[in-house]
Design a protein that fits this description.
This protein has about 110 residues and is of the alpha+beta class. About 65% of the residues lie in helices and about 15% in strands. Strand 2 and strand 3 form a beta hairpin. The longest helix has 28 residues. It comes from Kibdelosporangium aridum.
């Protein structure tokens, strides 16, 4: 199974999790996802996910001037985003537990 296919289903959850404790701008979120082990995640996917989560009302944003180039748009998790993270996290843990059981039986 390809990692890119799995990422499509969980990228929203991964982005929300990365923003749980610290706000971030697009490249920063991408860097944190890759540092966590999601090396396969693409730039466009992360930027698109941030825009979609913002439009869905799960993130807020603000602009911070940068001395090293263009201003940076930071995203932060708001209350609806925290609720979605909690709900999606429970769903993921349940799904992962089921898969672990199935794979354990196959071994």
């Amino acid at each position: 199974m390809e990692i890119s296919q799995l990422l499509k289903g969980v990228l929203d959850l991964a982005v929300l999790a990365v923003l749980r404790d610290e706000d971030g701008y697009g490249y920063d979120v991408l860097r944190r996802l890759r540092a966590a082990g999601l090396d396969e995640v693409g730039d466009a996917s992360v930027y698109g996910t941030l825009r979609r989560l913002y439009k869905a009302g799960l993130l807020t944003s603000y602009v911070v001037p940068s001395e090293e180039g263009p201003h940076r748009k930071y995203y932060s998790l708001n209350e609806p985003g925290r609720l979605r993270l909690a709900e999606s996290g429970k769903t993921w843990l349940s799904f992962a537990s089921t898969m672990n059981s199935l794979l354990g039986e196959a071994a």
